Amino acid sequence: MKLTGRSIARLAGVASFVLMGLATFPCLAGPADNGSTVEERSEDAVRQASTREVKAFLDNDAGKLATLWSDDMVVTNPLNKFVNKRQVLGMVRAGVLTFATYDRTITYAHVYGDTVVLAGNETVTWGSRMPHGGKTEQLLFTAVWMKQHGRWQEVARHANVVPPARA
Q: Cβ of 98: how many Cβ atoms within 10 Å?
């Protein structure tokens, strides 16, 4: 096809029309990532998963927790016990590991490829069947999440009770 002045003008007109449409209706351009990087999207996805974990604990939803946790997840818990996923889910299902309140604040997040480390603090009020039942305590936590089977799953967690301040 030979381009003449007239065909170039037509192409320019069509291109201008398409560009104006994309500028006016950005949704036509397809999904935007707002310039976020893979690391930012990974961190955001893990932060959302962490929020779902807290909700699942408050709802005593062992099924939801099971999907968020890797099958080989391990935890050093605030009772100074090293436990695995099966043991933690057993405590949830038995109504032992429950919370009246649970507030998590993430103060650190770092992405290492398909692994994300979160750390922060938690304020929890333990359920009545826990050793500190009814007591509100401050915890520090570190959680390690990995992308497994196409989704983010928690593979390791450490949490400890912050001792009360001395007078």
A: 19
Considering the entire predicted model, what is its pTM? 0.78
Q: Where are the domains of the chain?
A: 1-32, 38-161
Q: How far, CA to CA in Å, does 95 sit from each of 81, 85, 161?
A: 18, 16, 21
C-alpha 92: how far from chain center? 20
Per the CB < 8 A criterion, the answer to whether 102 and 57 are in contact is yes
d(CA 91, CA 84): 11
pLDDT per position as a tens digit, 95-142: 999 999 999 999 999 999 999 999 999 999 999 898 889 999 999 999
What's the CATH class of domain 38-161? alpha beta
**How far does the chain reach from its first CA to its final CA, in angstroms?**
88
Residue 13's contacts (CB-CB under 8 Å, 6 or more residues apart) are: none
The string of pLDDT tens digits covering residues 2-53 is: 545 554 444 344 344 433 443 444 444 444 456 789 999 999 999 999 999 9
CB 143 within 8 A of CB 50: yes
For residue 34, count CB atoms less than 10 angstroms from its CB and return exposed for 0-12, middle for 13-18, buried for 19 or more. exposed
Residues 6+ apart with CB under 8 A from 5: none
